[in-house]
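Tokens for chain A. Residues wanted.
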């Protein structure tokens, strides 16, 4: 029985530590791509300048939340509409310059791998503009929708999801393990 408890414990630990999959797009403005940012230009400085890409950065886990930075930084004025789905429930979405700058120290990463955490800037227009940009989501849902118009320095948000798998995944794993234990018990009796 101790072995089975150990297996259950190991599985739960594996689930808790499982890497979170990158978000995916359900819909995206035709001709646009959604991809992981691998450039070296500072994020938020208006220097990325890609007209038809929506970018994401795989950020850190802190205080039980996993952070994803999502931004659109075209050179001239461009509109974009997209829906994104994450593999864990969305807990919060930070959309203002103040929220981004305040949470930077907790979640940001070393974009250009030079050992310095100086790869984000937050000029006045960073964050969403009232009346022009929207992001809609429901707490506990994995999906959000965005409708933005941006130029420089672009539109930026930070999406915070649960850091561990959603309850449905845990429930399925526990049910599967319970079934396995039950099968083994029946074998012992037989
Ligand atoms: Ca850096
Ligand atoms: Ca905008």
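Reply:
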């Amino acid at each position: 029985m101790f072995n089975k408890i150990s297996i259950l414990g190991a599985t739960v630990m594996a689930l808790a530590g499982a890497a979170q999959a990158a978000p995916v797009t359900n819909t995206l403005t035709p001709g646009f791509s959604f991809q992981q940012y691998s450039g070296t230009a500072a994020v938020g400085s208006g220097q990325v300048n890609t007209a038809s890409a929506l970018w994401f950065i795989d950020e850190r886990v802190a205080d039980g939340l996993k952070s994803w930075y999502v931004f659109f930084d075209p050179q001239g004025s461009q509109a974009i509409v997209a829906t994104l789905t994450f593999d864990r429930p969305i807990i919060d979405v930070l959309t203002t310059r103040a929220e981004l700058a305040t949470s930077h120290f907790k979640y940001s990463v070393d974009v250009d791998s030079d050992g310095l955490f100086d790869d984000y800037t937050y000029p006045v227009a960073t964050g969403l503009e009232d009346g022009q940009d929207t992001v809609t989501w429901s707490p506990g849902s994995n999906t959000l929708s965005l409708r933005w118009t941006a130029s420089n320095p672009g539109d930026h948000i930070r999406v915070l999801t649960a850091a561990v798998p959603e309850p449905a995944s845990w429930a399925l794993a526990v049910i599967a393990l319970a079934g396995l234990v039950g099968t083994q018990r029946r074998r012992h009796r037989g």
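Strands lie at 24-28, 33-36, 53-62, 65-72, 78-85, 90-94, 134-137, 143-150, 155-162. Residues 110-112, 114, 116, 118-119 surround calcium ion (ligand 1) (CB under 6 Å).
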